[in-house]
Amino acid sequence: MKYFSGNFRAWLLLSICLFLDCRYLHGQVQRQNYKLQTIYVSSSKGNDNYDGLTEDKPLKTIHSALKKNKKGVNLRLKCGDVFFENISGMSNSIIESYGKGDKPVLCGFKILKNPDAWQADSIKGVWRLDLSNETDFAGYPLEYASDKLCFNDIGCIYDSRKDKIYGHLVKSKKALRNNGDFFTSSLYKRKDVAFRYLYLRYDQHPKALGNICLSTYNHGISNMDRCVIRNIAIIGFARHGICGINYTQIQNCDIDIIGGSIQVGYQNWVRYGNGIECWVLSYLISDNTISHCSISRTYDCGATIQGKGKGLQNPCRIRFVHNKFIYCRQAFEHFLSDTEGKDVDYVDCEFSNNLCFMMGRNQFDSSEARDADLLSYDKKNKNILISNNIFYGAPYYCGKAFGILKGNIVYMYKGDYLNHYHGQKNYPIIYANDEKSIETYRRRTHDDSRIYILDKESDFDRKMKKKLLARIAYQPIRLKK
User: Fold this and answer.
1) Whole-structure pTM value
2) Ordered DSSP codes for 14-49
């Protein structure tokens, strides 16, 4: 597009800065009291009796590679391999790929290897699957689960053959009304009750679905300090894709089919799950840069900077730049809520130069009023820069407080909202109808972005979607046997 060619110098400068930032962080990692130890891991060629120090003698599991040490490690995962494991608690380390082929995949799916395990329930058209019988499943094992009681708090059912998500989780067995609806447990307030059964409404015996995948109650990557994560794919985790990061670079990673678990212990029945979450705490969360990643089909938002609690610190230099967000509920969410009333703000944080395509269509079949490009629970305007992004095919901003909006290009359908806030009764919604509505929105938000109102399925709409899809080059993450 002309817009990006006109900003080529700015793009080039930012790319150089990101490269230098990565070089700097890599150097910081290596200048510790310990030297980086390179460990190779291959689920297809490895053996946990090897030492893992060369490509010819890789370990088989990440679990074995990190059993003794999670500091100062250069963890290298073989391209083309699928690892039914997650990664947590590393510091001053690098996680990356080696070899040729598709990115190595961290996968949270447990896979039904015995489709005959489904049993007819007492309710006609409802089927029951005993998730506790581990002999019926392959994929992510219970032994690696961080929370074994909640391990089967399933976020979605995935048919990998057809690339189809069954994501409509209901609150009770009686609420299983439509084909593909599923239910797990109503005991979400109790942390001491294990999730055991999955109930599915299906118009024929579910064995017809074959070896379905079930996303489990885990994070893909979590609690990482001063790390570099690059060239990795993450899929099938029913909590967050990546969370709990600090002073960390994430580059060229693919994240798909994330979230949907019930938030156990919360006062209300709530599902959740973000692609990459930067959670703000009472100590400094700083210097996270997420760039050139593809984040898709998340139950909640693709990217967040958010926090709620006592004594929050201002998040500093957290940047989401040059990423692609496809079919998430929202592309970006931000809020800072100090429970003691402390005034907290973003310091040099941004969401810029990203491409966001068709938010609100996350395939979890659970549409909400907050489905939009941007979501905020901030109570007053904050210094979070949201600039030079392309947003296509969704409502624009859900929130009553806004960031600094500059230079975005927004394509949205006539009748969708420019601004709405579902958390306040009688909030004055601004719908995208004409230039007058756009001007009303600008006065409220001081947003200088270019906004185009489209007729759905018009020739222009179809051409633009085709053009953007070609640019996104979106492909589902492949799960090889």
Assistant:
1) 0.92
2) HHHHHHHHHHHHHHHHHTSSS--EEEEE-TTT--TT
